[in-house]
Amino acid sequence: MEYVRFSDSDQKVSRVCFGAMGLNCAFGQFEEGQLIRAVHHALDQGVSMIDTARTYGDSERILGRALKEWKGERPFVASKAAPKASKTNNGWGMPNPISISYPKGAVTESAETSLKELHIDCIDLLQLHQYWSQYEGEYWVDEMLKLKEQGKIKHIGISITDHRHDQAISIVRSGVIDSVQTVVNIFDPLAFDSLIPLCQDKKVALIARCVLDEGGLTGVLEEDTIFDEKDFREDYFRQGPLSEYVRRVNALKKYVPAYAGSIAQLAIKYAAYPPGVTTVNISMHIKEHANENIRALEEAPLPDSIFLEIRKRHRWLLNLYENKYFPSEGEEMTATGFK
Length: 339
Hints:
Layout: E1 3-5, E2 12-14, E3 16-19, H1 32-44, E4 49-51, H2 59-69, E5 76-81, H3 98-101, H4 106-118, E6 123-131, H5 140-149, E7 153-160, H6 169-174, E8 179-183, H7 195-202, E9 205-209, H8 233-236, H9 242-250, H10 263-271, E10 279-283, H11 287-296, H12 304-313, H13 322-325
Parallel strand pairs: 3-4, 3-10, 4-5, 5-6, 6-7, 7-8, 8-9, 9-10
Antiparallel strand pairs: 1-2
Helix pairs in contact: 1-2, 2-4, 4-5, 10-11
């Protein structure tokens, strides 16, 4: 496992991060004990960073149990403050005013709850979930700074809504934050253009998420694939259409096994390619998948020419979250956008 410095601190994190959204059974139903064992398995393999959020259902509670039972060195724990919604807008597809998403005291309240759920005294990284650029310079920063002074958090970060990486440019330049989490994958390489080089220059950690595009960039989808109605992916891939999605994933097979052991490993190596990417945030609640994800960065890195070829030839700038943000008539829109 490779470890890198987090932002401008002395703390180091693994280049593969355990994405804990799957602990709330967003990607299939699992027994709680099985999920806890998956966390321990990833830690045993050298993964030293875990990313969760208040909006991920039971994720923090289950992760808290896993951490409490873990006998080794505590990993770097990142979580996200929970935004609030208005009656007509959940805030993910379109912004709410900061006074609605994060009324005064909301970040502090969310952090205090996270600390209790996680059974820890300090969150290594607290991120403002659902960040919009008009929130820059608002009072949430003061709340996080106070939490930092109190020793309840170590680092301040933001998590960008869907593919809008450019929302972070200004606040990265300001020097206020330590990290940005945003979508980085084969279909959406736009963060490579400006955000990632800027983060590297300013020593701001870049956490790449949706590296496998909610599982689509693993090569397991077929045109007739159907997910359980409670599965996050059930309406996500409906936006495709799925036939086009499968066609584009199949086009990546020409790089396997010459440059990666699998489609998933190709996607991970691609997202982790630039030195400005600190860690790749991937679901690892299934042991076999965790092993494959970890092995990806043990392979030789992609050659420059192949990285550039994929970056130019295989992009597909389509926002598959649209149906979750703006569901069809008669469908329910939840506070998080997740059904």
